[in-house]
Amino acid sequence: MTTPTQQPLSHAKPLFNTVLVANRGEIACRVIGTLRALGIRSVAVYSDADAGARHVREADLAVRIGPAAAAESYLRIEAIIQACRDTGAEAVHPGYGFLSENVDFARALEKAGITFIGPGVESLNVMGDKIRAKNHVAGYGVPVVPGVAEPGMTDAQLIEAAAVVGFPLLIKPSAGGGGKGMHIVERPEELAATLLTARRVAASAFGDDTLFLERLVTTPRHIEVQVLADNHGNVIHLGERECSLQRRHQKVIEEAPSPLLESLHDGGATRARIGEAACNAARSVHYSGAGTVEFLVSDDAPDEFFFMEMNTRLQVEHPVTEMVTGVDLVEWQVRIAAGEELTVRQDDVVLNGHAVEARVYAEIPERGFLPSTGTVVLLDELPGDELPGDTLPGGAGRKVRVDSALLEGLEISSSYDPMISKVIAWGEDRTRALDTLDGALAGYTALGIDTNVEYLRLLINDADVRAGRLDTGLIERKMPDFSFRQVGEFELVAAALSSVVAEEEGPQAPAAGQAHLAGPWNRRDGWRLGVRPPRRISLGLREGGVATVAVSGEVARGAVTVTVDGGPQRKACLGFSRRHRVELTLDGETREYALAPVYPEPGASAVLFLGSDGWSCRLEVLTREARLARVLAAVQREEGAADPAVRSPMPGTVVSVSVSDGDHVGGGQLLLSVEAMKMEHQLLAPLDGTVHISVKAGDLVKADQVLATVHLDAPSPPPTDPSSN
């Protein structure tokens, strides 16, 4: 195997003694790994929700900065600076998101005499506003997308300007990044309403509702260039990344190099031109540190590219560049901030092989990518002999790297972005990199939470993706054709037999003071005279249904006979292989599952989490009371009837209510919007009727809380036959 080699972490010049990492999650852990390798003491900051987080455990010191809400913790500039003073931190690494591109934060650090490991105020000020950035780089020979980008434009002015830009067009917020607040408008009549939503999202996410318009480039591909610049006039690029696989303008799969540029066979001429354009954009603002210049390229004209924005920070997808270049970008961020000169020249940059990154989200793809919360009860992110992601900063020299902040027992909160980890794979070519990534995802196990791992495997094995035929709309087109795995007989039987084993191995002896209860009549296995009847295990499914598995025989003694929902008899045998793994043989076919049982308080239903090949499910072992409640709920509602209750999909905040209590609404009409995990979820009327609203804008709501109820319209009385009088 030939893989890129990691550049040695040299200590030729003293760097910082203590660096504070002003972030959380996997990026905080990744930065702490490089600081440790450099011999620099690290300081973590955390909110109340992150008190037990992995980045807190891995840092040398940790400081609480506020409650769970980001606005009261990770976005509090004064709290970060006070934490620096309290710990003696000489510099701050902002990671990405939060304060990483906040010019006020950079100014405050400068005033306090603390080094910002990032670009200067000029770069942040110009590039932090998309309108200003676009107009600025156009004067330095960097091509830009046609559109209207003037600060302070009202909705009326934007609507008037849209006629000149043409449809379809793209509404973009001037502040912020990550694709949030961007909206496609196909027709003029949609523009006014979409502008209202775009302003609300922009104001909520970035504190700035300034918008601008751009022409929508057809079959667009998202290609970005990684740049490094020091404070001695040196600017280089480290090749490009392709980030065209996106949903809702959020990247899902990223790779380096771009298959589009690789397919041109122009001797690298286009790569050199787009790289030089990125360097010119960086030079125009005297950039310092690591940054990324994003371009839009039409698949129909791949030799043309247009500047979109510059991200003045480390990117989520930076590992793929590190994997193909062997350059640790975080190390160079630290070194440049400490005043060192770049020793890597443009001619030294060689793209070796191919790397692909998959973002793992806590979400439910088959339910519109709805973010999900929960507690990690079983974790195995890198099975096999691969090294963990923080063993070697930069990831060079390995085929698989996992950047993660997950821990068993960690609760996934609705307060933050749903991305929980990243799986990165390297190969000598693109096909081998994708194959390696697929294998790594197949072995990725995180039970107790919903993830998009199964979806990621479907996506990277799609024929168009494999062929490199990518564009930013591909996911939306492909999603309806993806077939997601459902709970089947194997999973039901595995869960049922596992619950029986747990019961058989449960405590048999009576509690102290209850010796008179000893004997077969008190045993949990239901001992009785005569032949033992089949055990019936009722399992609750996610969608509310109930499945029943009847088990005849002793599971611990080998093969048993099972039936599922009264179906045919099957021969089954359950075995235990390795840690938290079970093997089920059903009529001669064997499958292995990761298994994590959760036993609640007495009287409540136990929960079993099963997972295999990147897929997982949750099954409740129902008590009699819980089973009866589910059966009655199914009886009370006609099959196929809509639920009149409108529930919050997850914990969040009501950001808008579009109707009034008592209004008549139509099925599919927007009722209210809930914001959670940095996303706005629009809740629609399930049927025609009169709506009762039980919340108001600003209310905090729980998962599954009823926010509105639509009362079905009463049927009109039949017309009276005049002849009957």
Distance between the termini: 94 Å
**Helical coverage, percent range:** 10-25%
Give the count of helical stretches: 18
Q: Compute the gyration radius: what is it? A: 29 Å
What is the overall silhouette?
Answer: globular
Unreliably modeled segments: 1-6, 385-396, 507-524
Question: Structural class of the secondary structure composition?
Answer: alpha+beta
Could you explain the architecture of this structure?
With 725 residues, this protein is of the alpha+beta class. It is 25% helix and 29% strand. It is built from 18 helices and 39 strands. The strands form nine sheets. The protein has an eight-stranded antiparallel beta sheet with strand order 14-13-10-11-12-15-22-20, sandwiched between helices. α13 packs antiparallel against α14. It is globular, with a radius of gyration of 29 Å. Mean pLDDT is 87; it is low at 1-6, 385-396 and 507-524.
Task: Using brief descriptors, characterize the structure shown.
725 residues, alpha+beta, eight-stranded antiparallel barrel, 39 strands, 29% strand, disordered N terminus
Task: Give the SSE layout.
Elements lengths: L17 E4 L3 H13 L3 E7 L6 H5 L2 E6 L10 H11 L3 E3 L9 H10 L2 E2 L4 H7 L2 H9 L8 E2 L6 H11 L3 E5 L9 E3 L5 H16 L4 E5 L4 E10 L5 E13 L2 E7 L2 H4 L6 H15 L5 E10 L7 E6 L6 H8 L3 H9 L16 E8 L1 E2 L5 E2 L2 E2 L2 E3 L19 E5 L6 E2 L6 E9 L2 H13 L2 E3 L5 H8 L2 H5 L6 H5 L10 H16 L30 E6 L5 E7 L7 E5 L5 E7 L4 E6 L2 E10 L7 E7 L2 E7 L2 H13 L8 E3 L4 E6 L6 E2 L4 E7 L2 E6 L4 E5 L6 E2 L4 E7 L13
Parallel strand pairs: 1-2, 1-4, 2-3, 4-5
Antiparallel strand pairs: 6-9, 7-8, 7-9, 10-11, 10-13, 11-12, 12-15, 13-14, 15-22, 16-17, 18-21, 19-23, 20-22, 24-25, 24-31, 25-26, 26-27, 27-28, 28-29, 29-30, 30-31, 32-39, 33-35, 33-38, 34-37, 35-36, 37-39
